[in-house]
Protein backbone atom coordinates (compact mmCIF):
# COMPACT_ATOMS: atom_id res chain seq x y z
CA UNK A 1 0.00 0.00 0.00
CA UNK A 2 1.40 3.40 -0.95
CA UNK A 3 1.26 6.65 1.02
CA UNK A 4 -1.85 8.81 0.71
CA UNK A 5 -2.23 12.52 1.42
CA UNK A 6 -5.06 14.96 2.01
CA UNK A 7 -4.71 17.68 -0.60
CA UNK A 8 -7.73 19.79 0.38
CA UNK A 9 -10.74 19.88 2.69
CA UNK A 10 -14.00 21.78 2.45
CA UNK A 11 -16.68 22.57 5.01
CA UNK A 12 -19.84 24.64 5.22
CA UNK A 13 -21.21 26.26 8.38
CA UNK A 14 -23.22 23.63 10.24
CA UNK A 15 -26.72 24.57 11.39
CA UNK A 16 -30.29 24.83 10.20
CA UNK A 17 -30.42 25.37 6.44
CA UNK A 18 -34.12 24.78 5.94
CA UNK A 19 -34.16 26.57 2.58
CA UNK A 20 -31.50 24.29 1.10
CA UNK A 21 -31.74 20.74 -0.25
CA UNK A 22 -29.12 17.99 -0.11
CA UNK A 23 -28.13 18.99 -3.65
CA UNK A 24 -27.73 22.60 -2.56
CA UNK A 25 -25.50 21.59 0.36
CA UNK A 26 -23.41 19.39 -1.95
CA UNK A 27 -22.91 22.28 -4.38
CA UNK A 28 -21.96 24.61 -1.51
CA UNK A 29 -19.35 22.32 0.01
CA UNK A 30 -17.81 21.37 -3.34
CA UNK A 31 -17.39 25.05 -4.16
CA UNK A 32 -15.61 25.58 -0.83
CA UNK A 33 -13.47 22.48 -1.37
CA UNK A 34 -12.09 23.49 -4.75
CA UNK A 35 -11.49 27.07 -3.67
CA UNK A 36 -8.69 25.70 -1.47
CA UNK A 37 -6.71 23.68 -4.03
CA UNK A 38 -5.10 24.05 -7.42
CA UNK A 39 -6.79 20.81 -8.43
CA UNK A 40 -10.06 20.89 -10.33
CA UNK A 41 -13.07 18.65 -9.95
CA UNK A 42 -12.35 17.42 -13.47
CA UNK A 43 -9.23 15.80 -11.97
CA UNK A 44 -11.33 13.49 -9.77
CA UNK A 45 -11.06 9.82 -10.67
CA UNK A 46 -13.51 8.38 -8.10
CA UNK A 47 -15.86 9.57 -5.38
CA UNK A 48 -17.33 8.24 -2.15
CA UNK A 49 -20.42 10.01 -0.80
CA UNK A 50 -21.85 9.58 2.68
CA UNK A 51 -25.48 10.24 3.60
CA UNK A 52 -27.76 8.60 6.14
CA UNK A 53 -31.19 10.21 6.06
CA UNK A 54 -32.05 11.32 2.51
CA UNK A 55 -33.97 8.12 1.89
CA UNK A 56 -36.01 8.32 5.09
CA UNK A 57 -36.75 12.02 4.59
CA UNK A 58 -37.44 12.25 0.85
CA UNK A 59 -37.37 8.71 -0.53
CA UNK A 60 -33.92 9.07 -2.14
CA UNK A 61 -32.83 5.66 -0.88
CA UNK A 62 -30.54 4.77 -3.79
CA UNK A 63 -27.88 6.43 -6.00
CA UNK A 64 -27.61 9.38 -3.60
CA UNK A 65 -24.09 10.27 -4.63
CA UNK A 66 -24.89 10.23 -8.32
CA UNK A 67 -28.01 12.34 -7.79
CA UNK A 68 -26.16 14.92 -5.67
CA UNK A 69 -22.99 15.14 -7.76
CA UNK A 70 -24.30 14.89 -11.34
CA UNK A 71 -25.71 18.46 -11.33
CA UNK A 72 -22.17 19.62 -10.51
CA UNK A 73 -20.75 17.91 -13.58
CA UNK A 74 -19.37 14.91 -11.69
CA UNK A 75 -20.97 12.08 -13.58
CA UNK A 76 -18.39 10.11 -15.53
CA UNK A 77 -16.41 8.55 -12.66
CA UNK A 78 -17.19 5.76 -10.21
CA UNK A 79 -19.40 7.00 -7.37
CA UNK A 80 -19.64 4.80 -4.29
CA UNK A 81 -22.55 5.44 -1.93
CA UNK A 82 -21.78 5.07 1.78
CA UNK A 83 -24.26 4.65 4.63
CA UNK A 84 -22.72 3.68 7.97
CA UNK A 85 -24.85 5.62 10.45
CA UNK A 86 -22.88 8.34 12.26
CA UNK A 87 -19.60 6.87 10.96
CA UNK A 88 -20.58 7.38 7.31
CA UNK A 89 -18.27 10.33 6.67
CA UNK A 90 -15.27 8.54 8.17
CA UNK A 91 -16.18 5.45 6.14
CA UNK A 92 -16.27 7.48 2.92
CA UNK A 93 -12.83 8.85 3.79
CA UNK A 94 -11.57 5.32 4.39
CA UNK A 95 -12.94 4.21 1.02
CA UNK A 96 -11.20 7.05 -0.81
CA UNK A 97 -7.98 6.31 1.11
CA UNK A 98 -8.19 2.64 0.16
CA UNK A 99 -8.74 3.46 -3.52
CA UNK A 100 -5.65 5.65 -3.64
CA UNK A 101 -3.49 3.44 -1.39
CA UNK A 102 -4.28 0.41 -3.56
CA UNK A 103 -3.15 2.34 -6.66
CA UNK A 104 -6.55 2.20 -8.32
CA UNK A 105 -6.75 6.03 -8.38
CA UNK A 106 -4.44 9.01 -7.88
CA UNK A 107 -7.12 11.56 -6.95
CA UNK A 108 -10.29 10.64 -5.03
CA UNK A 109 -13.12 12.53 -3.38
CA UNK A 110 -14.80 11.82 -0.05
CA UNK A 111 -17.90 13.91 0.66
CA UNK A 112 -20.63 13.76 3.28
CA UNK A 113 -23.91 15.66 3.12
CA UNK A 114 -26.83 15.57 5.56
CA UNK A 115 -30.19 17.30 6.09
CA UNK A 116 -31.46 16.73 9.64
CA UNK A 117 -33.24 19.90 10.73
CA UNK A 118 -36.99 19.77 11.07
CA UNK A 119 -38.86 23.05 10.39
CA UNK A 120 -40.12 24.68 13.56
CA UNK A 121 -43.55 24.77 11.96
CA UNK A 122 -43.62 20.95 11.52
CA UNK A 123 -46.41 19.06 13.24
CA UNK A 124 -45.81 16.72 16.18
CA UNK A 125 -45.97 13.58 14.00
CA UNK A 126 -43.22 14.87 11.70
CA UNK A 127 -41.01 15.79 14.64
CA UNK A 128 -41.57 12.40 16.24
CA UNK A 129 -40.63 10.65 12.99
CA UNK A 130 -37.32 12.55 12.89
CA UNK A 131 -36.43 11.08 16.28
CA UNK A 132 -37.75 7.60 15.52
CA UNK A 133 -35.49 7.44 12.44
CA UNK A 134 -32.50 7.14 14.78
CA UNK A 135 -33.65 3.61 15.61
CA UNK A 136 -32.45 2.68 12.11
CA UNK A 137 -28.95 2.94 13.56
CA UNK A 138 -29.56 -0.25 15.54
CA UNK A 139 -30.65 -3.80 14.76
CA UNK A 140 -34.30 -2.79 14.67
CA UNK A 141 -35.69 -6.31 14.98
CA UNK A 142 -33.60 -7.06 18.05
CA UNK A 143 -33.30 -3.74 19.79
CA UNK A 144 -36.65 -1.97 19.49
CA UNK A 145 -37.87 -3.56 22.73
CA UNK A 146 -34.47 -2.87 24.34
CA UNK A 147 -34.68 0.81 23.43
CA UNK A 148 -38.24 1.06 24.70
CA UNK A 149 -37.03 -0.42 27.98
CA UNK A 150 -34.30 2.23 28.14
CA UNK A 151 -36.95 4.90 27.73
CA UNK A 152 -38.88 3.39 30.63
CA UNK A 153 -35.75 3.39 32.81
CA UNK A 154 -35.00 7.01 31.89
CA UNK A 155 -38.57 8.02 32.70
CA UNK A 156 -38.40 6.27 36.08
CA UNK A 157 -35.19 8.14 36.90
CA UNK A 158 -36.77 11.40 35.81
CA UNK A 159 -39.79 10.87 38.06
CA UNK A 160 -37.51 10.04 41.02
CA UNK A 161 -35.65 13.30 40.51
CA UNK A 162 -38.93 15.17 40.11
CA UNK A 163 -40.23 13.70 43.38
CA UNK A 164 -37.04 14.65 45.24
CA UNK A 165 -37.17 18.21 43.92
CA UNK A 166 -33.94 17.90 41.91
CA UNK A 167 -35.78 18.90 38.73
CA UNK A 168 -38.98 20.72 37.92
CA UNK A 169 -42.19 18.86 37.14
CA UNK A 170 -42.19 17.60 33.55
CA UNK A 171 -38.52 18.43 32.96
CA UNK A 172 -36.74 15.86 30.76
CA UNK A 173 -39.93 14.33 29.39
CA UNK A 174 -39.71 15.83 25.88
CA UNK A 175 -38.69 14.29 22.56
CA UNK A 176 -35.16 12.94 22.19
CA UNK A 177 -33.44 10.36 20.05
CA UNK A 178 -33.20 6.81 21.34
CA UNK A 179 -29.41 7.19 21.42
CA UNK A 180 -29.63 9.75 24.23
CA UNK A 181 -31.13 7.08 26.49
CA UNK A 182 -28.38 4.64 25.49
CA UNK A 183 -25.71 7.22 26.30
CA UNK A 184 -27.37 8.18 29.58
CA UNK A 185 -27.56 4.56 30.72
CA UNK A 186 -23.87 4.07 29.89
CA UNK A 187 -23.04 7.29 31.74
CA UNK A 188 -24.92 6.17 34.85
CA UNK A 189 -23.06 2.85 34.79
CA UNK A 190 -19.73 4.71 34.54
CA UNK A 191 -20.74 6.96 37.43
CA UNK A 192 -21.56 3.93 39.57
CA UNK A 193 -18.35 2.08 38.68
CA UNK A 194 -15.84 4.94 38.90
CA UNK A 195 -17.45 7.80 40.79
CA UNK A 196 -17.76 9.96 37.69
CA UNK A 197 -19.94 13.00 38.37
CA UNK A 198 -22.46 15.03 36.43
CA UNK A 199 -20.25 18.06 37.11
CA UNK A 200 -17.39 16.40 35.22
CA UNK A 201 -19.67 15.81 32.22
CA UNK A 202 -20.73 19.45 32.46
CA UNK A 203 -17.08 20.53 32.46
CA UNK A 204 -16.55 18.65 29.17
CA UNK A 205 -19.58 20.30 27.58
CA UNK A 206 -18.57 23.76 28.85
CA UNK A 207 -15.08 23.28 27.41
CA UNK A 208 -16.57 22.34 24.04
CA UNK A 209 -18.95 25.30 24.06
CA UNK A 210 -16.04 27.66 24.69
CA UNK A 211 -14.01 26.07 21.87
CA UNK A 212 -17.01 25.97 19.53
CA UNK A 213 -17.52 29.69 20.11
CA UNK A 214 -14.16 30.20 18.35
CA UNK A 215 -15.17 28.12 15.31
CA UNK A 216 -16.95 30.13 12.59
CA UNK A 217 -18.41 26.92 11.11
CA UNK A 218 -19.92 25.63 14.37
CA UNK A 219 -23.66 25.31 14.85
CA UNK A 220 -23.41 26.57 18.46
CA UNK A 221 -21.11 29.58 18.81
CA UNK A 222 -21.77 30.68 22.38
CA UNK A 223 -19.65 29.89 25.44
CA UNK A 224 -21.16 28.26 28.52
CA UNK A 225 -19.93 27.73 32.06
CA UNK A 226 -20.06 24.40 33.86
CA UNK A 227 -22.86 25.76 36.04
CA UNK A 228 -24.88 26.85 33.00
CA UNK A 229 -24.51 23.38 31.46
CA UNK A 230 -25.64 21.77 34.73
CA UNK A 231 -28.69 24.02 34.90
CA UNK A 232 -29.79 23.48 31.31
CA UNK A 233 -32.89 21.42 30.53
CA UNK A 234 -32.58 17.74 31.47
CA UNK A 235 -32.70 15.36 28.50
CA UNK A 236 -32.02 11.99 30.14
CA UNK A 237 -30.13 11.93 33.42
CA UNK A 238 -27.28 12.78 33.77
CA UNK A 239 -27.35 14.47 30.37
CA UNK A 240 -28.63 18.01 29.99
CA UNK A 241 -29.37 19.62 26.65
CA UNK A 242 -25.99 21.41 26.56
CA UNK A 243 -24.23 18.02 26.87
CA UNK A 244 -25.92 16.67 23.70
CA UNK A 245 -25.24 17.22 20.01
CA UNK A 246 -27.88 19.32 18.23
CA UNK A 247 -29.93 18.43 15.17
CA UNK A 248 -28.75 20.29 12.08
CA UNK A 249 -27.59 20.25 8.49
CA UNK A 250 -24.09 20.22 7.07
CA UNK A 251 -21.59 19.03 4.49
CA UNK A 252 -17.86 18.32 4.47
CA UNK A 253 -15.44 16.98 1.87
CA UNK A 254 -11.83 16.03 1.26
CA UNK A 255 -9.62 15.35 -1.76
CA UNK A 256 -7.14 12.51 -1.25
CA UNK A 257 -4.14 12.05 -3.52
CA UNK A 258 -1.12 9.86 -4.09
CA UNK A 259 2.46 11.09 -4.03
CA UNK A 260 2.31 11.36 -7.84
CA UNK A 261 0.11 14.45 -7.47
CA UNK A 262 2.00 16.38 -4.79
CA UNK A 263 3.90 18.53 -7.27
CA UNK A 264 0.55 19.87 -8.54
CA UNK A 265 -0.55 21.34 -5.19
CA UNK A 266 1.09 24.77 -5.68
CA UNK A 267 2.82 24.92 -2.33
CA UNK A 268 -0.16 23.91 -0.20
CA UNK A 269 1.16 21.56 2.48
CA UNK A 270 -0.10 17.99 1.95
CA UNK A 271 -1.24 16.18 5.08
CA UNK A 272 -0.06 12.57 5.26
CA UNK A 273 -2.50 9.87 6.36
CA UNK A 274 -0.58 7.71 8.83
CA UNK A 275 -3.52 5.37 9.52
CA UNK A 276 -7.07 4.81 8.32
CA UNK A 277 -8.82 2.02 10.19
CA UNK A 278 -12.47 1.01 9.78
CA UNK A 279 -14.01 -1.87 11.70
CA UNK A 280 -17.33 -3.35 12.70
CA UNK A 281 -17.97 -2.98 16.39
CA UNK A 282 -19.81 -5.41 18.59
CA UNK A 283 -22.11 -5.82 21.53
CA UNK A 284 -19.20 -5.88 24.00
CA UNK A 285 -18.46 -2.19 23.49
CA UNK A 286 -15.32 -0.95 25.27
CA UNK A 287 -12.92 -3.82 24.58
CA UNK A 288 -13.62 -3.63 20.86
CA UNK A 289 -13.14 0.13 20.83
CA UNK A 290 -9.77 -0.19 22.56
CA UNK A 291 -8.75 -2.88 20.06
CA UNK A 292 -9.51 -0.64 17.08
CA UNK A 293 -7.49 2.18 18.66
CA UNK A 294 -4.55 -0.16 19.26
CA UNK A 295 -4.71 -1.29 15.63
CA UNK A 296 -4.68 2.31 14.40
CA UNK A 297 -1.67 3.12 16.57
CA UNK A 298 0.11 0.03 15.27
CA UNK A 299 -0.54 0.96 11.63
CA UNK A 300 0.66 4.51 12.27
CA UNK A 301 3.71 3.39 14.21
CA UNK A 302 2.66 5.69 17.04
CA UNK A 303 1.15 5.58 20.50
CA UNK A 304 -1.40 7.73 22.32
CA UNK A 305 1.45 9.76 23.79
CA UNK A 306 2.38 10.89 20.25
CA UNK A 307 -1.05 12.37 19.49
CA UNK A 308 -1.06 16.15 19.91
CA UNK A 309 -4.83 16.59 19.71
CA UNK A 310 -7.96 14.65 18.77
CA UNK A 311 -11.46 15.04 17.40
CA UNK A 312 -13.67 12.37 18.97
CA UNK A 313 -17.27 11.28 18.61
CA UNK A 314 -19.04 13.20 21.37
CA UNK A 315 -22.71 12.84 20.48
CA UNK A 316 -22.89 13.54 24.21
CA UNK A 317 -20.31 14.76 26.71
CA UNK A 318 -20.12 11.21 28.03
CA UNK A 319 -19.04 10.08 24.56
CA UNK A 320 -15.96 12.30 24.79
CA UNK A 321 -15.21 11.16 28.34
CA UNK A 322 -15.23 7.47 27.49
CA UNK A 323 -13.26 7.92 24.26
CA UNK A 324 -10.39 9.64 26.06
CA UNK A 325 -10.13 6.41 28.05
CA UNK A 326 -10.48 4.02 25.09
CA UNK A 327 -7.88 5.95 23.06
CA UNK A 328 -5.38 5.66 25.89
CA UNK A 329 -5.19 9.37 26.74
CA UNK A 330 -5.95 8.50 30.38
CA UNK A 331 -6.61 5.37 32.42
CA UNK A 332 -9.94 3.53 32.45
CA UNK A 333 -12.31 5.29 34.82
CA UNK A 334 -10.28 8.52 34.92
CA UNK A 335 -11.92 10.34 32.03
CA UNK A 336 -13.90 12.60 34.35
CA UNK A 337 -10.98 13.88 36.47
CA UNK A 338 -8.82 14.08 33.31
CA UNK A 339 -11.28 16.48 31.68
CA UNK A 340 -11.95 18.39 34.88
CA UNK A 341 -8.21 19.06 35.23
CA UNK A 342 -8.22 21.06 31.99
CA UNK A 343 -6.06 18.54 30.15
CA UNK A 344 -8.51 18.26 27.22
CA UNK A 345 -8.89 22.00 26.59
CA UNK A 346 -6.90 23.86 23.95
CA UNK A 347 -3.74 24.76 25.83
CA UNK A 348 -3.97 21.60 27.93
CA UNK A 349 -1.85 18.47 27.76
CA UNK A 350 -4.13 16.64 25.29
CA UNK A 351 -6.65 18.95 23.55
CA UNK A 352 -9.82 17.15 22.52
CA UNK A 353 -12.44 18.52 20.13
CA UNK A 354 -10.88 21.96 19.50
CA UNK A 355 -13.62 22.43 16.89
CA UNK A 356 -16.28 22.26 19.60
CA UNK A 357 -17.00 18.63 18.75
CA UNK A 358 -20.35 17.19 17.82
CA UNK A 359 -21.86 18.93 20.85
CA UNK A 360 -21.17 22.38 19.41
CA UNK A 361 -19.82 22.15 15.85
CA UNK A 362 -22.87 19.99 15.17
CA UNK A 363 -23.61 16.43 14.09
CA UNK A 364 -25.21 16.16 10.62
CA UNK A 365 -24.68 12.42 10.53
CA UNK A 366 -23.18 11.74 7.10
CA UNK A 367 -20.89 14.78 7.27
CA UNK A 368 -19.53 14.40 10.80
CA UNK A 369 -16.53 12.13 10.14
CA UNK A 370 -15.30 14.35 7.33
CA UNK A 371 -15.80 17.49 9.43
CA UNK A 372 -13.48 15.90 11.98
CA UNK A 373 -10.89 15.31 9.25
CA UNK A 374 -11.27 18.93 8.14
CA UNK A 375 -10.47 20.11 11.66
CA UNK A 376 -7.39 17.88 11.76
CA UNK A 377 -6.18 19.46 8.52
CA UNK A 378 -6.85 23.02 9.70
CA UNK A 379 -4.93 22.36 12.92
CA UNK A 380 -2.02 20.59 11.24
CA UNK A 381 -1.63 23.44 8.74
CA UNK A 382 -1.86 26.06 11.49
CA UNK A 383 -5.08 27.48 10.03
CA UNK A 384 -7.41 27.07 13.04
CA UNK A 385 -7.31 30.67 14.22
CA UNK A 386 -8.12 31.33 17.87
CA UNK A 387 -8.62 27.64 18.61
CA UNK A 388 -5.22 26.62 17.20
CA UNK A 389 -3.41 23.87 19.12
CA UNK A 390 0.16 25.07 19.47
CA UNK A 391 2.73 22.75 17.91
CA UNK A 392 0.13 20.39 16.40
CA UNK A 393 1.91 17.74 14.34
CA UNK A 394 -0.13 14.54 14.85
CA UNK A 395 -3.93 14.58 14.95
CA UNK A 396 -6.42 11.76 15.47
CA UNK A 397 -10.11 11.50 14.62
CA UNK A 398 -12.44 8.88 16.10
CA UNK A 399 -15.90 8.45 14.58
CA UNK A 400 -18.49 5.84 15.55
CA UNK A 401 -21.87 4.88 14.17
CA UNK A 402 -24.93 3.01 15.36
CA UNK A 403 -25.29 0.56 18.21
CA UNK A 404 -25.33 -3.23 18.46
CA UNK A 405 -26.54 -3.74 22.00
CA UNK A 406 -24.31 -1.41 24.03
CA UNK A 407 -21.42 -1.51 21.54
CA UNK A 408 -20.75 0.86 18.66
CA UNK A 409 -21.68 -0.81 15.36
CA UNK A 410 -19.10 0.98 13.19
CA UNK A 411 -15.74 2.28 14.36
CA UNK A 412 -13.32 4.47 12.42
CA UNK A 413 -10.02 6.06 13.41
CA UNK A 414 -7.78 8.23 11.24
CA UNK A 415 -4.35 9.50 12.23
CA UNK A 416 -2.93 12.39 10.20
CA UNK A 417 0.55 13.91 10.18
CA UNK A 418 1.29 17.54 9.49
CA UNK A 419 4.27 19.00 7.65
CA UNK A 420 7.51 18.82 9.59
CA UNK A 421 6.30 16.06 11.93
Describe, in plain words, how this protein is organized in 3D.
The protein has 421 residues and is an alpha/beta fold. The protein has a domain at 138-243. The chain is 38% helix and 18% strand. The strands form two sheets. The chain has a nine-stranded mixed β-sheet with strand order 3-2-4-7-1-8-11-10-9, sandwiched between helices. A two-stranded antiparallel sheet has the order 5-6. Helix 4 (88-101) packs across helix 14 (365-380), helix 6 packs across helix 7 and helix 8 (198-212) crosses helix 11 (317-326). The longest helix has 25 residues, at 140-164. The radius of gyration is 20 Å and the shape is globular.
What topology does this entry show?
Elements: E1 4-11, H1 22-34, E2 46-50, H2 54-58, H3 64-69, E3 79-82, H4 88-101, E4 107-114, H5 124-132, H6 140-164, H7 178-194, H8 198-212, H9 226-230, E5 234-236, E6 239-240, E7 250-258, E8 271-280, H10 286-300, E9 309-311, H11 317-326, H12 335-340, H13 357-360, H14 365-380, E10 394-404, E11 407-417
Helix pairs in contact: 4-14, 6-7, 8-11
Amino acid sequence: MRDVYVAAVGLIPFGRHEDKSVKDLARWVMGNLFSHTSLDQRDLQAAWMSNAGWGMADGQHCIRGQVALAPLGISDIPVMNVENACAGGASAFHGAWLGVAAEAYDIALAVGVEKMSVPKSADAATKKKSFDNFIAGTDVEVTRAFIENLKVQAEQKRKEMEASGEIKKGEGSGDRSAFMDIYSMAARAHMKAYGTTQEQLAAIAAKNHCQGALNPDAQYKFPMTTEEVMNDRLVSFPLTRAMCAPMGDGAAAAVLVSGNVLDRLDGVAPIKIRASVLAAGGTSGGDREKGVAERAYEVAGLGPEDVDFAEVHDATAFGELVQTEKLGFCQEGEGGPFAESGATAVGGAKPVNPSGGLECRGHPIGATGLAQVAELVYQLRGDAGERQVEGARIGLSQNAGGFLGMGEAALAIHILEGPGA
